[in-house]
Amino acid sequence: MKPLVLIIDDDPKLNRLLTDYLADFGFQVHSAVTPGEGLKKLRREKPALVILDVMLPEMNGFDLCREIRRDSAVPIVMLTARGEPMDRIIGLEIGADDYLPKPFEPRELVARIQAVLRRAAGPSPGGSQTFGRLRLDTSQHKVWLDGTPLELTTQEFAALALLARHPGQVLDRDRILHELRGMDSDAFNRSVDITMSRLRQKLGDDPKAPAFIKTIWGAGYMFIGAE
After folding, report:
1. Last residue of a domain, one of 79, 99, 121
2. 3-state class of 110 per DSSP?
3. How far is the C-alpha of 137 from the C-alpha of 61, rounded, in Å?
4. Mean pLDDT of the chain
5. Is the dihedral of CA 182, 78, 204, 122 positive or negative?
6. Which of 118, 138, 195, 205 could form a disulfide with 200 if both were Cys (CB 3.0 to 4.6 A apart)?
7. 15 SS3 class
8. What CATH number does residue 68 fall under?
9. Smallest Cα–Cα separation from 191: which of 171, 205, 177, 179?
10. C-alpha span between 91 and 98 (Å, rounded)
11. Residues 99, 206 within the same domain
């Protein structure tokens, strides 16, 4: 089946252009011009990825992203006419997987969508691993803590899976950022730290006494969960 992409943007012309363009690359595309319509289609149609504009009527894209993240880990690529680094950082902090300022080349958007979906699919099937209270299944793209499933974003899952594949090994930010590619490394030099902070919150991991992810100051991060 063709991956379904949901566009939430109040520009009908842009929606039509992207619908036609993405279709040429094998995507099925639905669109919505308001946050309310977008949420309804998201819950009804279960898209593989959401393209979300920041400047929307009724509710801005940041607030809508927060609303989506309450009960969904669907990959989100945010679009905005505002290219300020702080806007991009906010997008990362609230759970966006990638961020593309307008105007943009449609082919770049396709490349970013493809990269995010590859990360969402996870690495080649590797089965399930248990690290104390934590169980990670890369083939199903699922994580459980104390038997309770965790809702991780694509970025968060990719970061956790990467660290878990290299237990006891320090991975620097450049290495991690390369794995979480899809973002401009210069514009997103804080993206790794933001992703790790969000991941730790969901794992209930205290940075001062970590059970899973240890910060190696000046070097990077290391997975310390014991099998």
Report:
1. 121
2. helix
3. 31
4. 85
5. negative
6. 205
7. helix
8. 3.40.50.2300
9. 177
10. 8
11. no
**Three-state secondary-structure class, residue 158:** helix
Which DSSP state fits 3?
P
SS3 130: strand
Neighbours of 58 (CB within 10 A): 11
Residue bearing tokens 């969000």 = 198
Tokens of 105: 């080349």
DSSP three-state, residue 97: coil
* 54 and 90 belong to one structural domain: yes
Tally of domains within the chain: 2
Phi/psi at 152 (nearest 5 deg)? -105, 145
pLDDT digits (tens, 9 = 90+) for 50-80: 999 998 988 999 999 999 988 888 999 998 8
Is the omega angle on the peptide bond into residue 103 within 30 degrees of 0, that is, cis?
yes
How far apart are alpha carbons 29 and 101 in whole angstroms?
A: 20
Stated pTM of the model: 0.67
109 lies in the same domain as 156? no
Task: State how far Cα 75 lies from the chain centre.
Answer: 5
Q: What is the pLDDT of residues 165-203, one digit of tens each?
A: 888 889 988 888 777 764 444 444 577 888 888 899 999
Q: Are residues 154 and 80 in the same domain?
A: no
Domain shared by 29 and 98, yes or no: yes
Instruction: Tell me the residue range of the domain where 19 lies.
Output: 4-121
Select from 103, 227, 121 the least CA-distant residue to 165.
Answer: 227
Q: What is the mean pLDDT of residues 142-152?
A: 90
d(CA 124, CA 139): 7
DSSP 178-212: HHT-SS-TTTTTTHHHHHHHHHHHHHT--TTS-SS
